[in-house]
Design a protein that fits this description.
Helices cover 67% and strands 0% of the residues. The chain is built from 21 helices and no strands. The chain has helices spanning 23-46, 54-59, 66-77, 80-93, 104-122, 129-134, 137-170, 174-223, 226-235, 254-270, 273-280, 285-316, 334-343, 349-381, 391-418, 421-427, 429-446, 452-478, 496-502, 526-545, 577-589. The longest helix is centred in the middle third of the chain and has 50 residues, at 174-223. It is found in: Cell membrane. Its main location: membrane.
Length: 590
C-alpha cells in the first residue's frame, strides 16, 4: 500500500516493561482522588443541608441544578470500558459502530415526552416503585432484583478494566490500585450522598474530557494531521458507515446500530434507576428535559471523540500492529500503549490520561452504588421494617448499604480477575437485562389492559430467552464456531528486532461444528428482542388470565402519549390496587 507520508516512524517501539509514570503523573492522579474525597467531606459535614434525610441523601432534596446533573449523567454513561473499548472497536472492526450517535437524539426525545413525565408525576425514589403501583409487589421485586444483580456484576468490570490499564502504564500491582481507588469512591459516596456523587461526577467528567481531547489532538499532530488519519483508515477499508445489509446475523449494520442501539440506550436512560433518580432530583420536569437534551449532545460528542481516537490509533500503528507483535496482548490495551508511545515523556500527561480513564470508572461506580442504595432501601429494606424509622436513622441505614455493596464490588473485582471468562459473559449481561426491564415498564405505561400476571410471566420468559441466547452465543464464540471479520492489520514496517523476537504464526483452531442459527443473531438486537418478548408474552398472558379494565388504571401510571385514546375514568374512580397506592402516596406527600 502507498500510505500517506508523515514524519512519524515506528522504528522504535516501547517494550512491555517500559514505564513512564513519574512523580508528576502520580501527583496528578493523587490530586484527582483527593479532590473527589474532599467533595464528599464537604457535603457530609460542611454543606448547608446535611445528609440526614432520605430525600437529601438519595435525591439531593430535589433541588439539583441542570449543569451538575447533566455532567453526572454523561459521566455515568461513559465508563472506563467505553473510553478504552470504543477506540479499540474502531481499530479492529472499522467505523460502522460510530453511527450509534444517530439514535441519541431520538432517545432523548422519547425519554422526555414518553417516560419521564410518568416518573415525575409520581415523585418516587426508586423507579421500580412504579412496578409496584402499576402491577404488584412481586413484579417490583423482580425488576429491582434484576437491576441490583446487573449492577453488582457490572461495577467490578468497570473498575477492573482501567485498573489493568493503570498496571500496564505504571507497573503498580492491580491488587494495590484497585482497593485504593475504590475506597475513595466508597467513602465519598457513603458520606456525601447524591450531591457528592453528582459534583464528583462533574469534576471527573471534566478530567475525562481533558484526557480524551489531549490524546486525540496530540495523536493527530503526531501522525501528520486529520487528512493523514482519514486517508490511512480509508486505504485500510476501515471507513464504513453505510452497510445496508439486512442480514440480522451481521455484527454491525446501519439497521442494528441505529435501531438496535435506540432500544438499548432507551432502556439505559428512560427506565434505568441511575438516570431516573438524577432527573427526579431536579425541581421541575422542564429542567429535567433540558438535562436530557444536554446528555444527548454530550454523549454524541464524547462517543465521536472516542471513535476518532480509534482512527488515530490505526493511523499511528498502520505499518506495525502492536497486537500482532505481542507488544500488548489485546485490543483494550491499545490506547494506554499509544499514550505511552506519543507522550510518555511529557511530564504529567500520562497522569492526566489515567485520571480521565479512572474518573469515568469512578463516576460509574459511585452512580451505581448510590442508585442501588435507593433501590435496596426502598424496595427491600423499608418494607421489612416493622415500624416507621426516623429520617436520621434511614440515612444511616442507607450509608451502611452503600458501604456493604461497595465492599462486595471490590471483592468481586478479584473474582473477575481470576475468572476471565466472566468478563466476556458480563458484556452480554446488559443485553439480557435491559430489554426485559424496558419491556416491563413499557407494558405498564403503554398497555392499560396488561395485568400483573402478564408482566411477571412476560419478564421471566424474556430473561430466560435472552440468557439462553447470550450464553449460547458466547459459548459458540469461545469455541471458535462464530467469528467476526476484522479489518486488515500490517507489520511490514516494524523494526526487525521486534519481528524476529515477537511475531509468531497463529493457526486457527479447528471448527467445532455449526452453532444454532439463532446464536448468530447480532448482539445489537438483544434489547429489542427482550422488550418485544416481554410485551408480547405479557399481553398474551393478560388476555388468558383476564385483561385489566383500562378505566381502573390511574392515569398517572400511563404515558401521556396514550391518554387521548383511553376511555374516560369513572368518577369516583374504582378502588383498585394501583389507585389505592396512588391515593396513599398523595396523602403521604401532602
Amino acid at each position: 500500500l502507498d500510505w500517506p507520508k508523515a514524519e512519524h516512524s515506528t522504528s522504535k517501539m516501547l517494550q512491555p516493561q517500559d514505564r513512564y509514570f513519574d512523580w508528576m503523573d502520580y501527583s496528578v492522579f493523587g490530586a484527582m482522588l483527593i479532590f473527589s474525597a474532599l467533595i464528599g467531606v464537604y457535603f457530609a459535614f460542611f454543606a448547608k443541608n446535611k445528609q440526614v434525610s432520605s430525600s437529601e441523601y438519595l435525591m439531593g432534596g430535589r433541588t439539583m441544578g441542570i449543569f451538575p446533573i447533566s455532567m453526572s449523567l454523561i459521566a455515568s454513561y461513559i465508563s472506563g470500558i467505553s473510553l478504552l473499548g470504543i477506540p479499540a472497536e474502531m481499530y479492529v472492526y472499522g467505523t460502522q459502530y460510530w453511527l450509534i450517535v444517530a439514535s441519541d437524539c431520538m432517545v432523548s426525545l422519547t425519554m422526555a415526552f414518553v417516560y419521564l413525565p410518568v416518573f415525575f408525576k409520581l415523585k418516587i425514589t426508586s423507579s421500580y416503585e412504579y412496578l409496584n403501583m402499576r402491577f404488584n409487589k412481586a413484579v417490583c421485586i423482580l425488576g429491582s432484583g434484576i437491576f441490583v444483580l446487573k449492577m453488582m456484576l457490572y461495577i467490578p468490570m468497570v473498575i477492573y478494566v482501567p485498573a489493568l490499564a493503570f498496571n500496564q502504564v505504571t507497573g503498580v500491582n492491580l491488587h494495590l490500585i484497585t482497593p485504593l481507588v475504590c475506597v475513595v469512591c466508597i467513602f465519598y459516596t457513603t458520606v456525601g450522598g447524591l450531591k457528592a456523587v453528582v459534583w464528583t461526577d462533574t469534576l471527573q467528567t471534566i478530567l475525562m474530557l481533558a484526557g480524551v481531547v489531549v490524546v486525540l489532538v496530540m495523536g493527530t499532530v503526531r501522525v501528520g494531521g486529520p487528512a493523514v488519519v482519514w486517508e490511512r483508515n480509508d486505504f485500510s477499508g476501515r471507513l464504513e458507515f453505510l452497510n445496508l445489509d439486512f442480514d440480522v446475523t451481521t455484527r454491525h449494520t446501519v439497521w442494528n446500530i441505529v435501531i438496535g442501539n435506540y432500544f438499548y440506550w432507551l432502556a439505559a436512560c428512560s427506565v434505568n434507576q441511575a438516570m431516573v433518580q438524577r432527573c427526579l432530583a431536579m425541581p421541575t420536569i422542564r429542567q429535567a428535559n433540558y438535562t436530557v437534551l444536554i446528555l444527548a449532545v454530550g454523549i454524541m460528542a464524547l462517543v465521536s471523540m472516542c471513535c476518532y481516537t480509534g482512527l488515530v490509533l490505526f493511523a499511528y500503528f498502520h505499518t506495525c500492529d502492536p497486537i500482532s507483535t505481542k507488544m500488548i496482548s489485546k485490543s483494550d490495551q491499545l490506547l494506554p500503549y499509544f499514550v505511552m508511545e506519543i507522550a510518555g515523556s511529557v511530564p504529567g500527561f500520562p497522569g492526566v490520561f489515567m485520571s480521565g480513564v479512572f474518573s469515568a470508572a469512578l463516576s460509574t461506580m459511585s452512580t451505581g452504588l448510590n442508585s442501588m442504595c435507593g433501590v435496596i432501601f426502598t424496595d427491600f429494606v423499608r418494607p421489612c421494617l416493622r415500624e416507621p424509622v426516623s429520617e436520621l436513622r434511614s440515612s444511616w441505614i442507607m450509608k451502611g448499604i452503600v458501604l456493604t455493596i461497595g465492599v462486595l464490588c471490590v471483592a468481586m473485582v478479584f473474582f473477575v480477575e481470576k475468572l476471565g471468562a466472566i468478563i466476556q459473559a458480563g458484556k452480554s449481561l446488559a443485553g439480557i437485562t435491559t430489554g426485559t426491564l424496558l419491556g416491563m415498564f413499557s407494558l405498564g405505561m403503554f398497555f392499560p389492559w396488561a395485568n400483573a400476571e402478564g408482566a411477571l410471566v412476560g419478564s421471566v420468559v424474556s430473561l430466560a430467552l435472552l440468557a439462553w441466547l447470550s450464553v449460547g452465543t458466547q459459548t459458540a464464540v469461545a469455541r471458535g464456531q462464530i467469528t467476526f471479520p476484522q479489518k486488515p492489520i500490517f507489520t511490514y514496517g516494524c523494526p526487525e528486532e521486534v519481528l524476529n523476537r515477537t511475531l509468531t504464526f497463529v493457526h486457527a483452531a479447528p471448527n467445532a461444528g455449526e452453532p444454532l442459527a439463532v446464536f448468530r443473531l447480532s448482539y445489537m438486537w438483544y434489547t429489542l428482542v427482550g422488550t418485544s418478548t416481554t410485551i408480547l408474552v405479557g399481553m398474551a398472558v393478560s388476555w388468558w388470565t383476564g385483561f385489566t379494565d383500562p378505566a381502573t388504571v390511574h392515569r398517572d401510571l400511563l404515558t401521556p402519549v396514550i391518554h387521548r385514546f383511553l376511555p374516560p375514568t369513572p368518577t369516583p374512580a374504582p378502588t383498585t390496587q394501583n389507585n389505592a397506592e396512588m391515593e396513599l402516596k398523595k396523602i403521604h406527600k401532602s
